[in-house]
Design a protein that fits this description.
The chain is mainly alpha-helical. The chain contains 22 helices and no strands. The radius of gyration is 26 Å and the shape is elongated.
């Protein structure tokens, strides 16, 4: 320890000792004094904000905002043990302000502030605070915790007859269901929320939830309805002046263009989304759109650009604590590394990605990461590990309803089985995968899989896989 560190350590130790030597009443008085001094330095206390459960509370900036968390802490201590060295209303006031600041800047303490505020509140205000705690947890990938906040928020909103609050809580719960692989529940909850928003005339909520419902359609390979609903959502966001929502929906529409081979449209839409996210200071959306743009670069052979964009996206997600999207971007960067022959780096990236997906209960991407790992095991001669990873991946993708990915991995697994001489198993897997890819209209991917299968079989000196005939005669 150098002299400066030793000094700082001794200073902190003496300060804490001096604090603890004060009587509880004196400590409360000191916190009240610190609270008053900070407020005075900032020009006084902010005005009372609109109610938290108001239709559109909106932002309400004030000079105390950078110190809101500290002010809440001083208020908490100044009110301890029944003392009143600050007005009782200041604790919920600054807890809310600290939480709002944290949510806007993706800072980690927003959730705990909302939870504490909920504990001080009743009725619709308590429901709104719990819902906001749930949203803060979702942003940080804490889906299990988010569900624990959102279920009581939904019950409370129903109890007090707050239809808009009920729609908000349903929409947030639907996102938890979607992100943890419960896609049918997610779809139903989004539809219920949309019906409520239409009933109460909340166009902003309707647009956001339509965009989320489109994600369910996309993740379950219903690309045409997904594209149509994204377009509806964008139109509503523009009508309502919701730039942040417009940015999210544009980024998601870009991913539809990318999946359906419209790369120029995808690139333009991602770039528009990035511009909007930067304009609205939406770091999470910016990271997501950068990751999507990286996929377009990778698919069009611009590997250096792709890797740089993936790294930018990962840095943003780590900076704001967004574990879910960090895991997705790590997996995509690993895939780019695998394509450029950096197999060890790719395997490490897939393993990191898989660990995060399991941590945040992201079942769909857990399945995708396992499938990617299976290809690494296959290409490095670890056949047993590859087979197990494919089986686990396909089971998960089937469970979450991701038909497109399920079909792709059935075909990839069939290629492995054929090179091992397991012709009957390979044929069954290939036939199932090919049927799924035709069902979801992914003929381009089926052609790529067929070319790769023929190359594998030629290299291994085994016959090409033939599809099983369909029931009633004929072939697929």
């Amino acid at each position: 320890m150098n002299a400066e560190s030793a000094y700082l350590f001794r200073h902190a130790l003496l300060r804490d000792a001096a604090y603890q030597l004060q009587l509880p009443g004196d400590r409360a008085r000191l916190h009240g004094l610190a609270f008053a001094l900070i407020e005075d330095l900032c020009g006084g206390r902010p005005p009372e904000p609109p109610p938290l459960d108001a239709p559109e509370p909106g932002p309400f900036a004030h000079a105390t905002d950078p110190f809101a968390l500290e002010l809440a802490g001083h208020a908490r201590h100044a009110l301890r043990d029944g003392t009143r060295h600050v007005p009782a209303a200041t604790l919920p006031l600054y807890l809310r302000r600290a939480a709002e600041v944290a949510d806007r800047a993706f800072l980690p303490w927003g959730e705990e502030c909302w939870v504490e505020l909920a504990g001080l509140s009743r009725g619709g205000i308590r429901a709104a605070a719990l819902r906001k705690a749930g949203n803060a947890a979702i942003v940080r990938g804490r889906t299990r915790v988010a569900e624990g906040h959102l279920e009581p928020a939904l019950s409370l909103a129903r109890e007090v007859g707050d239809r808009r609050g009920e729609g908000n809580a349903l929409g947030a719960l639907a996102t938890v269901y979607r992100e943890t692989g419960r896609v049918e529940q997610a779809g139903r909850a989004y539809e219920q929320a949309i019906a409520i928003y239409r009933e109460v005339g909340d166009r902003r909520g309707e647009g956001s939830t339509l965009g989320n419902l489109a994600i369910v359609y996309q993740e379950t390979s219903r690309l045409e309805p997904a594209e149509h609903v994204y377009e509806q959502a964008i139109a509503i966001h523009r009508e309502a002046g919701n730039r942040r929502g417009e940015g999210h929906a544009l980024g998601n529409l870009a991913s539809i263009y990318q999946e359906t081979g419209r790369m120029e449209q995808a690139e333009r839409a991602y770039e528009q989304a990035i511009t909007i996210h930067r304009e609205t200071c939406n770091r999470r959306g910016e990271g997501q759109a950068l990751g999507g743009l990286a996929v377009v670069y990778q698919m069009t052979g611009r590997m250096e650009l792709a890797q740089r964009r993936y790294e930018q996206a990962i840095a943003i997600h780590r900076n704001i604590g967004n574990r879910r999207d960090e895991g997705i971007a790590l997996g995509n960067l690993a895939n780019a590394n695998q394509e450029t022959g950096c197999v060890e780096q790719a395997e490490q990236g897939y393993e990191q990605s898989l660990a995060i997906h399991r941590e945040v209960s992201n079942r769909r991407f857990e399945g995708i990461a396992l499938a990617y790992l299976a290809t690494v095991y296959r290409d490095t001669g670890r056949v047993d590990q590859s087979q197990r990873a494919y089986e686990q991946a396909i089971a998960i993708l089937r469970e979450v309803g991701d038909r497109r990915s399920e079909g792709r991995q059935e075909c990839s697994f069939a290629r492995l089985l054929q090179t091992l001489g397991r012709t009957a198993d390979a044929r069954a897997r290939w036939s199932r995968g090919a049927r799924i890819l035709r069902e979801v209209k992914d003929e381009a991917e089926l052609r790529r899989k067929t070319e790769a299968m023929r190359a594998d079989c030629a290299e291994a000196g085994v016959p090409e896989i033939s599809e099983e005939p369909l029931p009633g005669g004929g072939s697929a």
